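Q: What structure does this chain adopt?
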Amino acid sequence: MPARDHDSGYKLLFSDPLMVRDLVRGFVDDPWLQRLDFSTLEPVKGHYVTEDMRQRADDVVWRVRADEGWVYLYLLIEFQHAVDRFMALRMLVYVGLLYQDLIRQKQLAPGGQLPPVLPIVLYNGERRWRAPTTLAALVPPLPAFLKPLQPQMRYVLIDEGAYPDETLRGLPQNLAAAIFQAERCLRATTILATSCCFPTR
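A:
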């Protein structure tokens, strides 16, 4: 399958609320998130433009109802073969663009506050993800005065290939886990077919 088709297929899968629900419930270990009312999940249509004026329309953004209002799930589905060392910076930019869009649309939390955002990077590359998940890890040690003045950013990493088979099998009713298992089987079949066609000596 061409990389572009595979990318589009994954984005289509995670444009389904049940898939998003199972991704969060199965792979983000936090009791508060588990209590969210995922029956209220709805996609957010926005217009996000980066500094080089490219549209971010391919990202998947959802909102889900919490006790105190909406929580926005910024789901960045990453399919690049090389791990992006500066992903934390990219997520800082994307969340900032999302906030700007929410301000323009007057979609603020009670009291005019910005709603919370859960930034998730879903990575399915063959190499394991080694990039920092915090912006602070990309900055050298700073003097005490400067340290609290730096922007803060942390994202949740879901590295598909890092989960053992038994972990995925332990989530039998989870749609996201089923997709991860199918992806793993597809890769294994491709590798086997290649080895049969081109035997090593």
